[in-house]
Amino acid sequence: MIPEKTSVIENSEHEFEVRISGCDLVYAAGSNDPIAHYIIKTKRIRDNLTTEVHRRYNEFFMLHENCEAMLRGNHLSKDLPPIPEKRPFGRLDSSFIESRRVELECYIRTLLRIPHVGSFDMTKAFLGIVGDSFESSHVIRSQNPPFELSRKDTLNGVASRAWCVVVSGFKNGAPAGIQKYSKVLRVAGIVIYAQHPDEIEEIMRKAKKPYLIHFLSQVEYSDLSLGG
Fold first, then answer.
1. CA distance 114 to 124
2. For residue 74, pLDDT beyond 50
3. What digits encode the pLDDT tens for the residues 32-61?
C-alpha cells in the first residue's frame, strides 16, 4: 500500500478527489453490442471544480501504459498499482461490472497517490479537467436530445475554417454538466472535428441508443466556491 502522505504534492492544482459511481452500457458507432463505460466523478481540490466523464476499460489500460512510460527509470515506478486484468468474456455481466467498478476505483485512487502522476497532461485529460477546461459526457437514450447545436467560429468572428459545433440552447433545461456553448467532442465514439451541425445530427439520428456525447466546457469561476 502506498503511504497516504504521498497523495499530497506541492502543486495543489493536481490534487483530485475521484470516485467511480457506476457504469453505463452504451453503443459506439458501428458496434453491435453495448460497451461498458464507467462513470468517473472528479473534483479538483483547489477550486472545487467537479465533472463527470465516462471511460471504458481500454482507456484505463492506456492511461496505465502511459504512466509506466512516464515513470520508467524513476524510483516511483515501483509504486504503480497493477491494472485490473482484461476479461474476454462476461464483461457485460452485472456482477462482473460491479466488481470491476470497485477494482478500477481502487486502481485510479492508488495511482493518484503517486507524486506527480496527477500533474501529467494525460492524467488530467483522462479525469476530464485540464486548466480552465473540463470534459463531461451525457448518455443519449432517445431520438430527441435535450439540446440544440450550432456552428461557432473559433476565431472571434473572423470567417475561416477554424470553427466548431457547440450547444446553442436547451429544450427542457440544461442537463447536469452541460452548459451553453459547450463544444461537442465525440458522438457515439466518433471524434467531431469540423463537421457541420446537420452532419452531427445525422450521426445522432443513426446512432444506436443509448450512446454517449462528450463535451468540452470552460470553467465559470463565479459558479465555484473558491478556496482561500
1. 14
2. yes
3. 999 999 999 999 998 999 999 999 999 999
Per DSSP bridges, beta strands 133-140 and 211-218 are antiparallel
Hey, CA dihedral for 90, 96, 101, 106, is it positive or negative? negative
- pTM, full prediction: 0.86
- Size (the chain), residues: 228
**Cβ-count burial of 117 within 10 angstroms (0-12 exposed, 13-18 middle, 19+ buried)?**
buried
Host H or E run for residue 164:
strand 163-170
Give the whole-angstrom CA distance, residue 7 versus residue 115: 7
For 68, the grid coordinates are 509506466
**What is the rounded CA–CA span in Å between residue 142 and residue 162?**
31
Q: With 80 as the cut, is the pLDDT of residue 160 above it?
A: no
Beta-strand pair 147-153/133-140 = unpaired
| Angstrom distance (rounded) from CA 89 to CA 100 | 13
3-state secondary structure of 60: helix
**Which run of H or E residues covers position 59?**
helix 57-71
Angle at 197 between CA 177 and CA 124, to 5 degrees: 35
Q: Which of 93, 99, 107, 119 shows the shortest CA–CA distance to 25? A: 93
Phi, psi of 63 (to 5 degrees): -60, -45
Q: Is residue 173 very low, low, confident or very high in pLDDT (cuts 50, 70, 90)?
A: confident
